[in-house]
Amino acid sequence: MKGKSMYRYIGNKAKLIDVLIDEIRSIIGTTGKVADLMCGTATVSSGLKSEGYEVVAADVMTYAYYHAMVKLLINNPPGYGKLLEKEIKINESAGDDGYQKVISYLNSLQPKKGYFFREFSPGGVPFNGTPSRKYFTSENAMKIDAIRETLYEWVNDELLSEIEIALLKHDLILSVNPIANISGTYGHFHSKFVGKSLNQFKLKAHFEYDLFSEFQSINHTVLKGYAEDLAKDIEVDLCYIDPPYMKRQYAANYHILETLARGDEPEAVGLSGLRPWRDQYSDFCSKVRIRDSFKKILTNVNTKNFLISYSEDGLLSLEQLVSFLEDFGEVHVKEVKYKRFRSNNSPLGQEINEYLIWVKK
């Protein structure tokens, strides 16, 4: 099985999914319940689902929560019945079903000069008085605004179920990301528009029908919150932990995706226009707090097996981490080489050592 990455994401395990599944299979067998506590783009969760495992996926980021809902909980696209009943004009849009009609309707909306135009395009004037930003062309930003504001209205009017919201937000994020004028993350933007950022934005339907999905989407759970807080309510055969390795905060590096997922209009701070992100700060990015975060999970999750992904670039060395983990059980380490995530012009080497650490209680 080959993992599929939806977009460039720090720590994404698309290229390691086969190794991970093999390791999990060797620990608990071919069936069982597995937690993916920091699921990100849900690559591992989706892989586990495909292999027949029951999955508990969780993440503190809203966009990750929606990705996991789509990948784990949806067998067929929802019908958007309540929305189509209320908004009659959507029924006139092209499409074989309600989902396709909604996508077509959203693409037909007139561009609008809203929050994204103001804060993230060269035609806008940021509220904080900084120079205009170039995350998106002005034309694309206006199209994004038209769609995101319409989604906000539908959500506010309670015309969408949680699953219907998740799928449209999932689609919006995956459609926006390819035309973003960035090097891989949203920490900053290019000074000039390059490559695909000049392409015209179009909302695309990203739901992929799987013939076996109906049989695989049984008893999966998707949670939103800090892994440390959710741990006490999770009982599984194995808990997979893929924490941030370095000081880079996901909440800052993917702030625009989080804003799309939440549908809000936060203060855009500084030259890069970051949203205030301290409410999603990860203690795994702190050399001082990382051990306490691991301890809360290792102590509170009801399981006999933990499988931890960690990197040679991590805040803790392998020796430091193993020494710490030995207080919680028997520790086994497997080393895997794979291609490093790099933003453009990074001085770091192409290969990196990834460690799969099994803690057996």
Short description:
With 361 residues, the chain is of the alpha/beta class. It is 35% helix and 12% strand. The protein has a seven-stranded mixed sheet with strand order 3-2-1-4-5-7-6, sandwiched between helices.
Please describe what this structure looks like:
With 361 residues, this protein is an alpha/beta fold. Helices cover 35% and strands 12% of the residues. Strands 3-2-1-4-5-7-6 form a seven-stranded mixed β-sheet, with helices on both faces. The protein is globular and about 60 Å long. Residues 1-5 have low confidence and may be disordered.
Could you give the order of the helices and strands? Answer: HEHEHHHHHHHEHEHHHEHEE
How much is the radius of gyration in Å? 21 Å
Characterize the biggest β-sheet. 7 strands, mixed
Count of discrete alpha- or pi-helical segments spanning 4 or more residues: 14
Record the strand order, biggest sheet: 3-2-1-4-5-7-6
Shape: globular
Q: Could you list the spans in which at least 5 consecutive residues all have pLDDT below 50? A: 1-5
| Helix residue percentage | 25-40%
Mean residue pLDDT: 90
List keywords for this structure.
alpha/beta; seven-stranded mixed beta sheet; 361 residues; 12% strand
What's the SSE blueprint?
Blueprint lengths: L16 H12 L4 E4 L6 H8 L3 E6 L2 H12 L7 H6 L11 H10 L7 H6 L17 H19 L5 H15 L36 H4 L4 E4 L2 H4 L7 E4 L8 H4 L1 H8 L27 H11 L4 E7 L6 H8 L4 E10 L11 E10 L1
Parallel strand pairs: 1-2, 1-4, 2-3, 4-5
Antiparallel strand pairs: 5-7, 6-7
Helix pairs in contact: 3-8, 7-8
